[in-house]
Specification:
Structural class: alpha/beta
Radius of gyration: 19 Å
Number of strands: 7
Number of domains: 2
Strand order of the largest sheet: 1-7-6-5-2-3-4
Helix content: 40-55%
CATH superfamily of the largest domain: Uncharacterised protein PF01937, DUF89, domain 3
Length: 293
């Protein structure tokens, strides 16, 4: 975990304390306890792992299992209300695959932990009109055609409405779509997938994990089976990327907005960039780094 991750974790924890105002302890004591925890953690743990732990602490303190339920409902309903309009945007495009892919990536701006002040429609407009920092979308399109087993890793509620549009455009009903095993931040669960209609398109599973990411060792045997059998993995969002960035033996395409400098540096792009990146690029960077050592 990069040292800058600690700042983000503390800000997220502070927002939750301000939102729920736990009565059992005052915020100062709770923040001191959290800072004490951060000082003792294994430096090899990634940020999503710590975020999952942090969320469990808050849940127990206030007795609420889904801390972002209202935000998720709002995001799902907002994008569902615009679904037909956005579907038309895709249908009139010269390349419907590319247009739907861009909309799906624009949805990754929805993040109530790291950046709660997002503007989804402004982001959609930007993504439709600007180049990506890394664009392996043509390779991804061909891989989707050729792959036998495709696993699609979902990220946030609301965002999955645009994933649904992308899945409809792809047109393969044998894709497996994975969501989180438990409510964590505003990440999508099975209930969100049902609400937006993804369960009517493809087979949906949860990963059995409480983390806002895909950390394979923390996932259920069912998920691990699908993960190991997939010859193509579509990974949405920075959270999934953080969990899989060192997974060099799978064919993974990362689709996300880069939300911090630490991840931007790891990918070789700037904060705020949008990317469609195959992990073969990361393999090359990793190999080069080893040679330089």
């Amino acid at each position: 975990m990069d040292y800058r991750c600690y700042n983000c974790l503390v800000r997220s924890f502070s927002r939750l304390l301000e939102k729920f105002q736990p009565k059992a302890n005052n915020n100062e004591i709770l923040m001191k306890e959290f800072l004490s925890y951060l000082s003792t953690i294994d430096e090899n743990l990634n940020a999503p792992y710590i975020t999952g732990y942090m969320q469990e602490i808050i849940k127990k303190m206030i007795g609420i299992d889904d801390l972002y339920f209202e935000e998720k409902e709002f995001a799902n309903n907002m994008l569902l209300a615009k679904y037909q309009e956005l579907k038309k945007v895709v249908s009139v495009a010269d390349c419907s695959f590319t247009r739907a892919l861009r909309l799906a990536i624009a949805g990754n701006i929805i993040d109530y932990a790291a950046n709660p002040d997002f503007d989804i429609m402004q982001t959609i407009e930007y993504v439709l009109e600007n180049d990506f920092a890394v664009d392996d979308s043509q390779e991804l399109m061909q891989e989707i055609i050729n792959a036998k087993n495709v696993l699609y890793l979902g990220d946030n509620a609301g965002e999955i409405v645009l994933d649904k549009l992308f899945l409809e455009t792809i047109g393969r009903r044998d894709i497996v779509f994975a969501v989180r095993g438990k409510p964590v931040i505003n990440d999508a669960t099975i209930e969100d997938a049902k609400k937006v209609g993804i369960t009517n398109l493809v087979h949906v599973i949860d990963n059995g994990s409480k983390l806002p990411s895909t950390v394979v060792d923390e996932c259920s045997p069912e998920f691990v089976k699908y993960f190991n059998n997939a010859d193509l993995i579509i990974s949405k969002g920075q959270g999934n990327l953080e969990g899989l960035i060192n997974t060099l033996d799978k064919n993974i395409y990362f689709l996300c907005m880069v939300k911090c400098n630490a991840i931007g540096e790891a990918l070789g792009v700037t904060k705020g960039s949008f990317v469609v990146m195959n992990n073969k690029r990361l393999n090359k960077k990793h190999s080069k780094a080893v040679l330089e050592l």
